[in-house]
Amino acid sequence: MDTNVDPLQNPAKRHKCCACYKQYKKKEHLIEHMKVSYHSIHQPRCPICLKHCKFLESLREHLLGPSCSDIFSEQGCQLCLRIFGSSGSRNEHMEFCRLLTPIPLGTSVSPTVSHEFDFQDSYDENRVGMRPKAIAIDCEMVGGGSDGSLELCARVCLVDEDEKLIFHTYVQPQMPVTNYRYEITGLAEEHLRDAMPLEQVQQKILQILHNGESIGEVRLESLDGGKARLLVGHGLAHDLDCLKLSYPEHLLRDTSLYGPLLKTNSVSHSLKYLTRTYLGYNIQTSTHDPYEDCVSVMRLYKRIRGQVHQEEGNGTSISTASNDIILESDPWGSKEVDNLTPDELYAMSSSAFKCWCLDLKSRSA
């Protein structure tokens, strides 16, 4: 043992993640953390100390914690979690950030409302770089089977990005309804007496979503579906299953599955919670209204999509002080990783999810 070494002059070196600020005693532990954390510019990030968080919920908890709460309480928006130059500018911003509750359709609306699209108005083949447009969907279910537990779609609603009602209809169940779930749906037998058959509903929805594009082109992920529209919803798999429809996964935008919108234990929040927390109003205070839910999920999608992130800086080529390292197909398996700084490790990391802000990028970008 070297008795000449002063332990006070050689404190144990800590290896700190430059994204989430976690510290590790060993460099290999930091590297392992970076491999599984998927830090990227698309993660929720504190606007004050710039710490990365995995979920918007954990970012909210951080902003209300001891380190950044003083600034956030004075200058931060509780809805979009942005920071403003003063409490006055924050208050002015919140006048627009807190939205009004949509006016529900109710159950006395005409059985079917359908508006035809002007395809060229939404997508002009002669214009380069058009981004995909979105359509929001919501379904109301009644119960079938002896115990009323089978999910039968009885009502469907679609709205566009401008909150315009595109399609609404009651749906004729394919088996007898044994539970109308009136307290939730507000539906009774008379609403479904002259309802549209499910097959016609399917055709109409696909016509809207495909937007004149062929089925083959819609399925090609490399083309982002061409002219086809993004489908926005909360619990889309359930709605599509009850409608007996399929739609390419790369064109789905589900607020119940989107990583940053999950709880810190990776479980889904309800649409009611997300609307209150990020839009500032309450929904589903009595019966569920499909138009109200459609508009709310579209607003939520557009708010998340509109987040501004810095230009993508991650890549497979890492420049160091000594040389340029061209990483292999499995960059984390390279021996050179041990020599990289925390900043260079962060540059190697990439997002585990497709950020919705990318939907605003044109197809030619």
TrEMBL record:
PROSITE patterns for the chain: ZINC_FINGER_C2H2_1, ZINC_FINGER_C2H2_2
CDD domains listed in its UniProt record: REX4_like (cd06144)
GO cellular component, one term: nucleus
Top-rank lineage group of the source organism: Eukaryota
Residue span, C2H2-type domain: 15-44
Keywords: Exonuclease, Hydrolase, Metal-binding, Nuclease, Nucleus, Zinc, Zinc-finger
Any one GO MF annotation of this record: zinc ion binding
UniProt entry tagged with the keyword Cell cycle: no
Gene Ontology biological process terms, A to Z: rRNA processing
SUPFAM superfamilies xrefs: Ribonuclease H-like
Cellular localisation: Nucleus
Transcription in keyword set: no
Record-stated family: Belongs to the REXO4 family.
Protein's name in the database: RNA exonuclease 4
